[in-house]
Every structure is written in C-alpha cells, then in structure tokens.
Design brief:
alpha+beta, 4-stranded antiparallel β-sheet, 14 helices, about 20% strand, 8-stranded antiparallel β-sheet
Length: about 625
C-alpha cells in the first residue's frame, strides 16, 4: 500500500449538523463536535508530521491491506470504502451522518454512523476467507493534549472529553475494540458515535434504518436540482458538498470544514475557515439558487438578518455605527480571536495550526454588497415560504448606506491583507452592487422614490470605479484606485452586471489578466507580493472566474478546455480545496472549499449545452 502520508484525497460526510473527513483507507481524520467550529475530536490530519497517527482518528485496519476502492453512493452523502487484502478478503465500510425527515422535521443528530461488513473471497476459503480487522476509535480533547476518560457499558463505550462526552454504541466486540485487538470479522457490525444518549433501538437495526432513510432523503433532494445537461455528476457532488457546509441549526455557511491546511508547502499561510464569511456564503447561495435549491438561502437569510439587525443596534465603544464584520461564528459570535495551537504539528508538519481568524477585525467594504446580493432573490422569488418584505428592505437600506459611505474608502480588500489598506476595486464594485440591487428591490416593492434614490447612488459609484480603477498603463481595471497592479477579482464585474461582457474595457482586462496571472488553465489571485510574499499556488475560484469571463466574452472553447482541466484536478471523490500547485496539480489549502465547489457549479451551468439540444 501507499505510504502513510496525509493528503487531500478525502471524502466529506455530514448532515447539516456535523461533518467529518474520511481518507482513502476509511480513516476518519477530521471531525469537530458538536459544531463545525468546535475543538475537533478527530484531528489526525493536523498531527501528520510523521504520517497519520492513530490518535485522533477512527479507523478499520485490515490485515494484509493491498488496495482500496472508494466512492459515494450516487446522489447521496453516503461514502463507501472497500479494503482488500493480499489473499482477496475484504471489508466494506459505509460512512454517513443520519439525515432524514421524521415527525415533520429534519432529523440530523451530531452523530456519525459506520457500518462494516466482510466481503470474503479469500483464496483458500475457510477461516482465511474471513478478514481480520482491528477497529480504532481514538477521539481526544484539546488538540491531543487531553486523552479521554473511557467508561464501558454493555454495548457501548463512553469517551469523556473536556466539555463533551461521546457515546459509541456498537455491535462489535467491546473488549476487542477497547483493547485494540484484531479479530476475524464473520458478519456485519455497526458503530454509532454521537451524544451520550441511550440508543432507542437495536444497534444494527438502527444503523441499517438510518442508512436507508438517509439515502432516500439525499436522492429526493438531488432529484429536485435543476442540473445542466453536461457534467451532472460534478454538479450534484458540488451541490451536496455545499449543502453539508451549512450549519442548519442557525443557517450559517462555513467557508470550509477545516482549519490550517496550508495554502502552499511550508508557507505559513494557515487559516481557520470554520466560520461564516458573508462573501463566501453569498456565492454559495447564488450557486445553489441557480440549481433551484432555495432552501439553503432561506436558512442562511435567517442568520444573515440576525447579523444585520444586531449590528444596526450595536453601540459598542470604538465600533463605527453600522459596521459589519466580514465573518462571524456560526452562532453569531463576533470575536474570533486568533491563536496558535502549539500541541498540533500541522498538516504534514506544516504549521502553525490556528484557531480563530483575525480577519474578523478587518474593514472589508465589499461585505455590504454581499449582504444585499445574498438577500435580493427573496424579494423576487414567489416560491419561498417567506419572501422579503418592507422591514427586510429597510434593514438592507442600512447596509446600502454603509456601501455608499465607504465605496471610495480604503479597506483590507477581499484577500484580507493584514498590513496595508487601499481603495480596492472589488470592494467598490460590491458597494455599487448593493445600491444597484436595492434599486431593483424597491421597484419590486412598489417604492419608486427609493428605487430612484438607489439608482442614482449606483450611477455615481459606477463613475468613481470607471475613473479610479482603470489603468491606462496596463489597459485593464486595476486592483485598486489609482494603482496598476492586476487582481483576478475584477473579473466579477461581468458576473454582478457592472459591465456587459463584450465591453471593450472588460475584454482588455481579461487579456491583461491572461498575460499576468494565468499559468496553463490556472489563475493566481494577484501579481503583487502580500504579507507572506508572492503566492506560490493558484487560487481555484479565480480559475473558475477566468472560465466564466472567457465564456462571457465569446471564447467558449477555450473556457471549456480550461474547465475540463480543472475538473481533472478534483480529488477522486470530486472535491476541491482552496488552492492548487500548478506544476504538480496537488491540492492545497482548506478543504473542501465552498468557493471552489461553487466554481464547478457555475462553470457547468455557464458552459453546458442546453437540454433542448438533446430532448
């Protein structure tokens, strides 16, 4: 078998309450409980300097392992891994988190279910045909600093951790599991890990029932997606992945389920993405809306309006009135103080490992546009249970006032630079979008005076961008007002409707970015050095923005070629991280990255042949 080296060939399982990452050998190497931003109970991924350890993982070790197979069940978040030994014996491990409708609500406990069954087939028959396995369940607390106190029941083990107690209900031999003893697997066994609560039914019956109902739920969910004709499997997997990144208890959408996976080898660019960035969440909502999946938006808007109304009422000393942070905790937490975790060595030993994110202190003015854009469809879409109303519009107008006031003021920008501030073109662009969309919303609500007011403000901001952001030297819209450096984020001008795609200045900008930022099918974020120097890796969502821009300006074949090349860089399960090393194609950065998965959906929708070309 391959060396015991950590990589991002991982599958995501989850249910809107809890997520976990499973590697190609069915080792659960990352899981935070009970929330996505909680201290992980499985964190072997970030203790992998010398390979993946047993501590902080949940594994099935097969004697004589020589090969593995892994795939999702079609249209579901159920992951199936097969391990095979040299003599042909094998085991199948089925991993999922329960999610289905019961008693008129979604049942989504903070629980992982693992079903294991022998595949047999040993060459000699008899005892040799029964696979020998060792079951590993090694959660710990405080990033490995605190081992659990383990207590034993008749058919369960309790793991007492700081602030959390987990119960593992299992039909496997408790003694073998507790002692880490290998045994012959003669029939199916089940493991259910979650809250310290008594299981109501039989262990195997419950696990089987949960799997059947969860499979049915996901197949009904994916069946309702309005997918494009081409690349349907890629789109469906991306949509499920985005859905799993929503913490449905509040509606917040995390940027990724991990922290501190480095953007490039030994770069120090390790950040905690387990929070809700209003920018990233807007793009998730927009992509899923495009597939007619509006439930995610409805849940997110509950959370978003709580943010908006809380900040409008905030009068804390030193905080500007109306200021909205670029990110919050999934439970609306404002303070996400960044700290290092010294006891965690990091992904392949590449630290530091961080908890929290200092970007919560930033002023990023594009946030006001992302708020309005994220909420805009609710004022026009008659399918929704709760459409936007006058009160919601008034709350959004406060965001528009902020956009108007700040559209030409310096900020940290969407790339969250920590050591300098400029008037970033992308921030001003989103301030324009806030005012533009408020005008459309006012028209939808029958408020012509307010529509004219916001239309006029959008017009003024447009003029400021066209005058301040254009670089005659580069023949392109630049990264900041008065500057000449290039930045991929200006490609959003076409996506948000600021410019028609065939506008000569936009086409010239695309050409300039092609020359400065593109390496093969991949695109970098910017050309200037940042706080850590010049980035080594390309940024996947920028590569997708490039594809969208190429298609819009009429270069569809070039766009399709680049799109296929990016799809080929997904991991074997169809997932993408934040970054990619262009020379090797290796994935880097937090995983799975919602931005990147959004890019897959948007690219497929933009480039696919129409359904009426075949039906």
């Amino acid at each position: 078998m391959q060396p015991n080296v950590a990589d991002l060939n991982l599958g995501l399982i989850g249910n809107g309450q809890v997520c976990a990452l499973v590697d190609a050998q069915a080792r659960i190497v990352w899981c935070c409980l009970p929330r996505p931003d909680s201290t992980p109970v499985f964190d072997a991924l970030l203790h992998s300097k010398d390979g993946l350890p047993e501590a902080g993982s949940m594994a099935v070790q097969l004697d004589g392992l020589v090969r593995t197979e892994q795939a999702y069940d079609d249209g579901t978040a159920i992951l199936r891994t097969r391990l095979w030994s040299a003599d042909g014996a094998g085991v199948e491990i089925t991993d999922f988190a329960p999610r289905f409708i019961t008693r008129d609500r979604v049942f989504r406990p903070a629980q992982l279910v693992r079903r294991i069954r022998p595949l047999g087939g040993g060459n000699g028959g008899g005892a040799a045909s029964h696979p020998r396995v060792r079951l590993v369940v090694r959660p710990h607390g405080d990033w490995g600093a605190t081992p659990p106190v383990i207590t034993r029941g008749g058919h369960h083990l309790r793991y007492v951790l700081p602030g959390l107690t987990l119960r593992l209900s299992t039909s496997a031999p408790i003694t073998y599991l507790e002692n880490g003893t290998a045994f012959s697997l003669h029939g199916p066994v089940s493991l259910l890990l979650g809250p310290d609560e008594t299981l109501q039914g039989g262990i195997d019956d419950t696990a089987r029932d949960f799997e059947e109902q969860t499979a049915l739920y996901w197949r009904h969910w994916t069946r309702r997606l309005a997918v494009p004709l081409e690349w349907q499997d890629a789109v469906i997997r991306s949509a499920i992945t985005l859905k799993l990144c929503q913490y449905e208890d509040t509606g917040a959408i995390v940027a990724a389920v991990t922290t501190s996976l480095p953007e490039a080898p030994n770069s120090g660019r390790t950040w905690d993405y387990r929070y809700c960035w209003l920018r990233d969440a807007f793009f998730v909502v927009r992509a899923l809306n495009g597939l007619s999946e509006v439930g995610t938006m409805e849940g997110y808007l509950r959370w978003l309006y709580d943010v908006v109304r809380a900040e409008a009422a905030d009068r804390r000393p030193g905080v500007p009135v109306g200021h909205v942070q670029p990110l919050y905790g999934v439970g609306l937490e404002r303070e996400l103080t960044e700290r290092l975790v010294p006891q965690a060595t990091g992904y392949r030993g590449m630290g530091p490992v961080r908890v929290g994110n200092q970007a919560y202190e930033h002023f990023q003015h594009d946030v006001y546009g992302n708020i309005v854009l994220g909420a805009a469809q609710a004022f026009h879409d008659r399918r929704l249970f709760r459409r936007g109303d006058r009160g919601d519009f008034e709350a959004l107008e406060a965001m528009g006032e902020q956009a108007w006031r700040l559209h030409d003021q310096p900020d940290a920008g969407m790339w969250e630079l920590r050591t300098r501030a400029r008037v970033h073109t992308s921030s001003s662009l989103m301030c324009w979008a806030a005012c533009d969309r408020l005008s459309h919303i006012a028209n939808a609500l029958g408020l012509p005076q307010r529509a004219a007011h916001w239309h006029e403000r959008a017009h003024i901001i447009r003029g400021a961008i066209e005058h301040g952001a254009w670089s005659e030297k580069r023949r392109a819209y630049a990264e900041s007002f008065g500057g000449h450096a290039l930045d991929a984020s200006v490609l959003l001008m076409a996506e948000v409707g600021f410019l028609p795609p065939r506008d000569p200045r936009f086409v010239a900008t695309v050409d300039a970015l092609e020359a400065a930022l593109v390496e093969g099918p991949y695109m970098r974020r910017y050309e200037s050095a940042d706080d850590f120097g010049v980035p080594e890796t390309t940024f996947n969502v920028c590569s997708f923005w490039r594809i969208d821009a190429l298609a819009r300006i009429g270069r569809r074949e070039q766009a399709r070629e680049a799109f296929e090349a990016l799809l080929a860089r997904r991991n074997p399960l169809g997932l993408l991280s934040e970054d990619l090393a262009p020379a090797t194609g290796e994935l880097w950065g937090n995983f799975p990255q919602t931005y990147s998965m959004v890019g897959i959906i948007n690219g497929a929708v933009r480039l696919s042949a129409p359904w009426d070309s075949v039906v």
